[in-house]
Amino acid sequence: MNLSKKVQALAPSATLAAAAKAKALKAQGIDVLSLTVGEPDFATPENIQKAAIAAIQSGKASYYTQSAGIPELRQAVVDYMQKNYGLTYNVNQTIITDGAKFALYLLFQTILDEADEVIIPLPYWVSYSEQVKLAGGVPVFATSDEEDSFKVSVADLEKVRSAKTKAIIINSPSNPTGMIYSPEELQAIGQWAVDNQILIVADDIYGRLIYGEHTFTSIAMLGEAIKDNTIVINGVSKTYAMTGWRIGFAVGKEEIIQGMIKIASQSTSNPTAVSQYAALEALTGDQSSVEAMRKVFEERLNRLYPLLKEIPGFKVQKPQACFYFFVNVSETLKLCGYQEASSFVEDLLNEAHVALVTGAGFGMDQYVRISYATDWETIEKSVQRIKAFVERKA
Ligand code: PLP
Known about the structure:
Layout: H1 5-8, H2 14-27, E1 33-34, H3 46-58, H4 71-85, E2 94-97, H5 99-111, E3 117-121, H6 127-134, E4 138-142, H7 154-158, E5 165-170, H8 183-195, E6 199-203, H9 224-228, E7 230-235, E8 248-251, H10 254-267, H11 273-284, H12 288-309, E9 324-328, H13 330-336, H14 341-352, E10 354-355, E11 357-358, E12 367-371, H15 376-393
Parallel strand pairs: 1-10, 3-4, 3-5, 5-6, 6-7
Antiparallel strand pairs: 2-8, 7-8, 9-12, 11-12
Helix pairs in contact: 3-11, 4-11, 5-6, 5-10, 12-15
The chain binds pyridoxal-5'-phosphate.
Pyridoxal-5'-phosphate is lined by residues 38, 99-101, 125, 171, 175, 203, 205, 235, 237, 243, 248.
């Protein structure tokens, strides 16, 4: 049977594929070190685990919930937006989803018709372009300079705007670069989007993993007109070490959110009940674990940065957030005789047993993404192996 054209055209997730490859080699007994993962290496905090167990034992996790999510969690999201963003929403402007990833999926299904365009700044998180395509839309990539930390300006966006532009995705802090837009930069983009009636999709999933003197501002916080024109995507995966629980949320224009709820009702019915009760504890319970985990990531960032700079040809910018480095390896590739990062990454895995994600998955094939969401020993050993590999090949 022929699979649908949609599926034939779909690329599998590059990050998940890289992680799976490393796991497969590990299963063969090979000592593989993986810096591929996009998830905290901590167990979900105990208070959250306990809330989930209580929800199971009381029986309330046994049943379907509302498609939009349990009312207590939707209210907790409203309170979260008030407390962390200073923004007021009503419960009908919220939806709880199976991870932030499915919130994005529902959103594109809700707003896009055939050939509608979505502007995606490069480099971009792997799923944006594929999800836009699955919804019949066309991803249009906006480029910027590495010297500007890959942050797009209005001038960059104007180059790709067309009559078909329906939305723009702003992912700040960014996966893969770990860079944050300033309020001024966001204000300019927000005003441009409002003036051109382009919906802003603000993927704020890394908004609580910020380091040094840097601070987080969501584009939705920059005035009433921009807020009304923005759908905020967020979730508990990264902040609360809850990737496996699959809970995210979206907040914004009621008409759009209600469209998303309608699709959820005909697809997943509802996010897993027990996970919703766990997420309720995450958002409303003791917050001390959030800061404790953030501090560990920051320590790793500060230790890893100087080590990466010692690898021949690595051009490294110090990230401000998330748990990734997005390294320009074009010099390293030249030194070692590679055309693009994918074959470098492949040989590194097979010969030195270190797994990284090639930049190609993020739209840039002269880069690699290195995650430090793993224990320090693994990070340190991996860097030693990468350095030795490059020195051997050069
Ligand atoms: N957005 C970005 C930029 C991400 O990196 C991820 C996860 O890797 C997600 C969204 C999805 O997060 P989740 O579906 O686990 O909530």
